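Task 17 of the worksheet. Students: predict the tertiary structure of the chain below and write it out as structure tokens. Keep your answer in the requested format; marks are given for formatting as well as content.
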Amino acid sequence: MIITQESIDAKSALKDLPSMSPLAAANLVLVFGSVKRFNEGKLQSALKARYPVAQIVGCTTSGEISPTGVYDDSIQITAIQWQKVMQRVAQAKIAGMQDSFDTAASLAKQLKADSLRTVLVISDGLNTNGSELLKGFQAILGDVPIIGGLAGDGGAFTKTLQIYNDTISSNMVIAIGLYGDALIASTGALGGWKPYGPPRAVTKSDKNVVYELDGKPALPLYKMYIGEAFARGLPGTGLRFPLAVIEEGKRDVESIRTLGGFSAADNSLTFFGNVEEGTTVRLCQTNHDRLVEGAGNAANLVLDGLSGNKTNQTGLALCVSCVGRKLVMTEQVADEVKLVRQILGPQTSVTGFYSYGELAPRPNTTDSVLHNQTMTIGYLSETL
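Model answer:
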């Protein structure tokens, strides 16, 4: 496995890159950048010229992750040349959230094979139900680990973009299948959020839309808890106030759900993943130190998963973290990336983005779920 990385900061342009491609033989190129940079018009052709044989995949973000920190309005390019691992890429347009399951199932059928070991998914962030998307993949692929995330647009909640070779478009779901026993993969996912306030029963919901909490209209109740000042800024301010889903009989947080939108017409709340009727939820809060600690613990889960493969060989850590974490940590957001890199070591390249939903297995399992407000890490390498 050979990895090279290129970075274009907010003040630089594609033409400022060195004329020589650092890895012209790359098989796969991951690209993360802002909506503004994806709209510049020459990104696809410039990347294809630099990486003529690669599959080029990526998306817009709410912040770009690189080995040196977190950036806005940059372009982060990671080129990978597999030496033993095989890959296959499939993509499709998604008509809307209601088509999430069927779109994923269709892609999964294209990737399914006995030698499939891991799937990397990059999806539109505003027109996809991440929970249903995963169900679609899992209906065909079973417990094959799925990593990746839902694209962002800087917290504007207007339009996210995806890149697939010579196409930049919204409403795309892109899936990369990685095949063969030469693949080394491990994952970690932890948040650092703590629930507060009274538990509320979800008494009426439909997949990712919540209509009632404790038999009361959901939107007014949510607004009451976050306060008038934050309520005026919805849905964007909702990133600071996710819901913790508490599994029956347990005190621990089962999953976290981030607000994606609301409807004053029916007083509903729309989240980036399903909130099942009958579950119990609580509002969440956190601080900088808890979030950084969560990211570090996610990196340690990656090391635990590598077990006998803990070596100094080249590897890639795809970090997908939630935009809500970025809002809490503000100018100190790079601290969580710094800690991940410190734990995984200098032989591990780091890339990724701040997202509207993170895809990764639950800790110590291959059962992939939609996370919100979580640092997820998908580690990829191959045997020497």
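Marker's comment: The chain has a mean pLDDT of 92. The longest helix spans residues 288-306.
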